Amino acid sequence: MYARILSVLFVFWTSLLLGQTLLDVHLEPTEIPGLGGVQSYAFGTHEGEWLIAGGRLDGLHRRQPWASFDEAGNNNQLIVVNPEEGVSWSASTSDLDEEIREQLSSTNFEFYQQAEYLYMIGGYGYSPTIGDHVTHPGMIAIDVPAVINAVKTGGDFQAHFRRIEDEEFAVTGGYLHYLDGVYYLVGGQRFDGAYNPMNMPTFVQEYTNAIRRFTVVDDGENIEVTHLEEWYDEENLHRRDYNAVAQIMPDGSQGITAFSGVFNSQDLPFLNSVDISDEGYIVNNDFTQYYNHYHCGHIPLYSGSANEMHTIFFGGMAQFYEVDGGLIQDDNVPFVRTIAQVTRSADGSMAEYKLDSEMPDLLGSGAEFIPVENLPAYPNEVIDLDALEEDSILLGYLYGGIRSTDQNIFWINDGTQSEASSEILAVYLISQSLSTSNFNEGGEKSLFVVYPNPSNGELTFQFTLENSVPVEIKMIDEAGKTVFSERYSEQNLKVGENILSVDIDLPSGTYTARILAGKLKESQKVILIE
């Protein structure tokens, strides 16, 4: 395993910028007798019950073409779950039309529920009709309430499935979102043939590199799709198997943010993000995401009073993780237990924080977060944080995903090192407003904070001055040597809060950032990485 210890981090990971809110969660296991495991599936909801379709019944795909994504691991059933009552039902898809049945047996769909209809696009899996693995070129519409009722009662549900053929929908590993009457199919790829990791000629792979936009007119019988102009970007939209999350932007508008994903030009996860609106997209290179790079369960929450957008990510796989206060870089992108929060502030800046809570196992990749009904939310289903009145409130459930026995199992994977998890984790928001200040080594409130942390060298120093005095900022290496020093005159500062942006060119490692300003003499450990 290629792993590099970048540093030992002594400052609290959960420390925040002054004025920001740190969320925390509690995970409570919930068992439902007879409910099996599934990963990388699609879901719809109705009156507190879930409809689970597609996905895989096994764990991480194997590397041999004959064993990877084999037919035995297909989910050929529909599953209905009532988490509150702790019961589930299932029904075979064998009686459905061939094209619908085969597409439903695939994995890594793009999906979105609009009112009672769940729209499922693409998905990759073995097609007995073709005799090979394909990314399905079509969209399925499911009447969720009708199918849930039919599965529970043993009724016929064939009439509640419809499908249209469309080559633009031959996409797997992307995301489907909805903004102001328009659907956004973001990223993903078309992958046809048998997977192998050595790039032998058993498959054809083509990333969309695009945001494909379209509208849908659905009268319950006929589906009419109108494709709009797509937005193409071979460098920044070359993403799959990632998290694209609904957002409320600082100006109050609804949007989408594509977080991380694979693969960039170095065959590693993207560490930046892309913001999407109805006017276009903007690549955010000022933000670096170190955790939760692959698709995992996530929760978007927005505070209008603070104008802060929070997104919480649960486990999955990532290039970076923490061990005993040290940040580890592993370019094999292993399974992790990390739960992290990304916060967008009122000025549009974004920062990432590792939460104290962790996943109970190497769990979360290919899982979904399914919210409870009737939570206060914005039209795009972002939870309204200000309207949550209780201090501990059930937000929803994490279900399924891959559970791994070790962080890096790919090259030894014979099918026994991981499984599709059947575990359900109830997710409680246990605090809405923890302390928003750092503390110095003496336990007193700190007026000095440096972010982002870790950083590539583009640092922001935030501090509060009680008097008009000059300020000196230093960076000290682990040997105690001052390797950077900059002095700022009082004419360029103010009494009260100050923010300085500094580009520091130093080798990767752990440093002490120190501020000297009259009586204010404080330090903070900072990680610099490439």
Supply Rg: 24 Å
Q: Average pLDDT across residues? A: 90
CATH secondary-structure class of the largest domain: Mainly Beta
Which regions are unreliable across 5 or more consecutive residues at pLDDT < 50? 1-19, 432-446
Record field, number of beta strands: 43
Report the helical percentage.
under 10%
Characterize the biggest β-sheet: 5 strands, antiparallel
Mind explaining what this structure looks like?
With 530 residues, the protein is mainly beta. It is built from 2 helices and 43 strands. Strands 13, 14, 17, 18 and 19 form a 5-stranded antiparallel beta sheet that branches. A 5-stranded mixed beta sheet has the order 29-28-25-24-32, with no helix packed on it. Strands 2-36-33-31 form a 4-stranded antiparallel beta sheet, with no helix packed on it. A hairpin with a 4-residue loop joins strand 5 and strand 6. Mean pLDDT is 90; it is low at 1-19 and 432-446. The two termini are 20 Å apart. It folds into 2 domains: 3-431, Kelch-type beta propeller (Neuraminidase); 448-528, Immunoglobulin-like, CATH 2.60.40.
Task: Reconstruct the topology from this structure.
Layout: E1 3-8, E2 24-30, E3 42-46, E4 49-53, E5 77-82, E6 87-92, H1 98-104, E7 110-114, E8 117-121, E9 124-127, E10 132-135, E11 138-143, H2 144-153, E12 161-165, E13 175-179, E14 182-186, E15 189-193, E16 203-207, E17 210-218, E18 223-227, E19 231-232, E20 243-248, E21 254-259, E22 273-277, E23 280-284, E24 297-303, E25 308-317, E26 320-323, E27 326-330, E28 335-344, E29 350-358, E30 362-365, E31 368-371, E32 383-384, E33 393-399, E34 402-404, E35 418-420, E36 424-431, E37 448-451, E38 458-465, E39 471-476, E40 482-488, E41 496-503, E42 509-517, E43 520-528
Parallel strand pairs: 24-32
Antiparallel strand pairs: 1-27, 2-36, 3-4, 4-5, 5-6, 7-8, 8-11, 9-10, 11-12, 13-14, 14-17, 15-16, 17-18, 17-19, 20-21, 21-22, 22-23, 24-25, 25-28, 26-27, 28-29, 30-34, 31-33, 33-36, 34-35, 37-38, 38-41, 39-40, 39-42, 42-43
